[in-house]
Design goal:
Number of helices: 14
Shape: globular
Strand order of the largest sheet: 1-4-6-5
Radius of gyration: 23 Å
Oligomer: single chain
Length: 372
Amino acid sequence: MNIELLKNIEKFIQKLWLTSYTKDRLRLLLERYEYCSKNKLNHYSYNIEEINKNEFNKHLIGFLDGDGILRSGQRIGHKKGLFRFAPNMGLDVIIYDLNYLKLIKRMLLLPEDKKIYTSEKKATLLLSSEKELGLLIEILDNNQSFISQKRVRDYKLLKKLLEYLDLTKLKKKDIIWKDKGLEIIKDLNTYNNLSSDEKILNNIIKELSLDYIIGFIEAEGSFILHYNSKKNYIFNSFEITQNKSNDLILWGILEFIKKYNNPLIIKENVEIKTRGIVEDKSKSRKQILSRLTLTNNDVLFNKIIPLMISKDFYSKKQINLIYWIFGVIICKDLKHSDECLNLYFKIKEVINTNSTDLLDLNEILKIINKYL
């Protein structure tokens, strides 16, 4: 990294009203951004040795809670009334986050020849053998397990399916298989009608951790730069979206963020004033969505940015976060500068693209440092 860039990074960081710890974390993230830029990467490649396994496991649970897919693998057996199941947990990511699945594979100590399925737009890692699912259950049982309403039910179903697989190894086939199979089929048929209050909000809040939340955001969160052309107005948002039936997790995360005030991370504990979780009733969607949205500049800068950079992201979201931080700073303090506004629109064009041609960090910092 050249001397000019190092000086610009330091100049930028020292101007920000952040804790020493948060400044150190931001410095590290900017250095990783530059590494990605020089090596044509759209996210930083971690060595296993530099990852805290306990924190990663909690992050993984959060990611699975947001984006994991439990499949029962239901099949009809060779005799009427007998059922076969081949349960698996699928992890789907967009194709340019393939390396994140490779990292998960290494962290779970899966065999090198374990296949990751890829298509033009998507990459999928399937945990399907009893050993693989056993590794997942061990991680879940040793941590806080799933938290959202939907995944809590997933986990109960997964355990029932694995119990069923154990039964199929017994010689007492017909009656046991049939009864247990019918029981699970009934569970599957009533699956979507279970009470959404199965895990009450107070319990969700108690079980949340920052590592879990960052993992959930890795799966379901968005850092967005906006422009209202009618009002000629720029603003930024931090958003997490879920189906309405699974929105208690959003309320839990919102309460966690409101109450979080670790002085190591938070310099100024601003009050979050929001109407909470809003419903998206777009007619183009079959299901009603719930969305947590924060747009206040002071909240984004003083609360969300420190929280987001206090832990690691493992997908391209780490690059999007850096772009978004610049967008928040411009919107908060520098939007009256034409040069900074032009930079904002330039960042807005690339923040959610798959390009490995990242914006020049030194040029970004030179513009921001001139006006900050």
